[in-house]
Amino acid sequence: MVPKIRRGSRTHGLLVYLYGPGKRDEHIDAHLVGSWDGFAPDPGRDSSSDPDPKVTLARLAAALDLRVKQAGTKAPAAHVWHCSVRTDPGDRTLTDAEWNTVARRLVQAVNLAPEGDPDGCRWVAVRHADDHIHILATMVRGDLRRPRMNYDFKKAQAECRRIEGEMGLRRLKPGDGTGAKTPTSAERFKAERTGRPETPRETLREAVRQALAGAATEEEFFTRLREAGLRVKIRNAPSGDAIGYNVALPGDRNRDREPIWFAGSTLAPDLSLPKIRLRLADGTADPTTPSAATSGRPEWSPPARERRSATGIAERAAVLLDSDDDEAAAQLVGIGELLDAVAQTSPAATRAELRAAARAFERATRSHVRAERADTRAIRSAARGIIQAGSALGRGEDGGTTTMLVSTLVLVALAAARWHSARGHAQQAHASRQTAEHLRAAYRQAAVTPMQVLRDQGRALPEAERRTYAATIRAALPEVGLRAASSSTRTDALVATLAQAEQAGHDSKALLQQAINMRELDTAEDVHDVVLVWRLRSLAHLPAHPGTTTRHPQAGASQPGILANRTITRTSPTSAARPAVPDRGNRPPRR
Known about the structure:
The chain has helices at residues 11-19, 53-71, 96-109, 152-167, 185-194, 200-212, 218-227, 264-267, 273-282, 302-322, 329-345, 348-364, 377-389, 400-422, 426-446, 448-460, 463-476, 478-485, 492-503, 508-518, 527-539, 573-576, and strands at residues 2-8, 31-35, 80-86, 123-127, 132-138, 231-236, 242-248, 262-263. It is of the alpha+beta class. A hairpin with a 5-residue loop joins strand 6 and strand 7.
């Protein structure tokens, strides 16, 4: 049940709209379901004394405005309180009596007409559709004083949550005032009329978020906006300093053929220029320094290299979120930028789900928790690196490193859901869980080819070697071993990864235990595929593409059980050293 509150100054004009046909003839059988005394004239159904509905409507407006006129100049200029209350599309249809109860409880909750107060404000509730009513009240009491109506929206929201529970309606998530402004009805109707899949407000919000992902400077941010095809207008102070910005979609014009501008703060609370400047100052992405995790690895293409780097950084963000520290709030903002960056540069097969994940997580990045000492440079640099590396399609990134990163982002989204739930952030927790579902779908799409290669490699191992690694898995994860006993193929990819890690010089038992100890595994859909395989490949610096030659650990690395000079696949001497920029003819086929 969603209340929407507005204020105005034209009682008669609002009644004309409520009892009229609506903008698209959507108003049907308009009638009163409640009023301040139960005897207010009803222009929709009361024809006993005045057969002309217009006369009845004028009488109703005069009755509602009586105290406003009596108060004279003491009455507020915007004396009309208008609240529409709508049930969820999946809810049952309420009766007129139930809507009357809803209206009375809401005007009491916001202190317009307290129960038993003879001087309460005058109000009516009009129903012209099955799923909602409109409450109109005039904000002058019987003693000609103004009602105390502080925080009326929050009070109406809280009362709606109670009504939902008592009437068996869908329980919506309570808000905290940090959500982005939703499109108006007029914006939605215009989008439908012009054939747009969404409103300009929503399109612009996503475009601004994507332009901000990994941006190092304010100038770069504005340049990205223009390169995305948006109209950009900078608002300057008399001194010449920029104090704000507006954006508009090309072709989106008003009736006077002028562009329809949106300020950043009207798109989302954290997209105002002052908030953007704080983000850039707190976590300025380094535009030149390569990642320590991936520098000096010429055999990885730029998109693959940046995704591998981002995987480790995302894993650390998940650890911070699980630490239950308020400073982790800044990591949420960084993860939002990382999702935007991945969605912009991923192949078409996963782009839709990754864009949906980024959109959902946008709600999870905002709450009233503020991080005072957070350092987001690493995660913003990861987002910047992915943007600068460009599209992954056909550039040596066959889905393996995307799969590795997305599998980690699933865990980050679930950690964010727990972090928000612990603080009572219902909407943000729900958004985080939605993000995880979209990421799981993207993972399943990206993992098809690399996981099939790994399973084939696992099945190709000698039977004795397979049994050895299966025993290692059962010892580390007994419950997994029991499940795998009924289907030997379930652990094929994990067996192949353990074999490749040991061939690269690692102790497979120690490495598996390290991967298990890094984070909990209970929330994973499949411990083998979603978590351990890609975590092991990241820890052991194995190629994300299973068919690529394995690198040896660097000299002097303190890895247990090093087996020197062993690789996954046999390579010719000419293929051992690869150029910094892979030759186009030697790149793996596009999948």
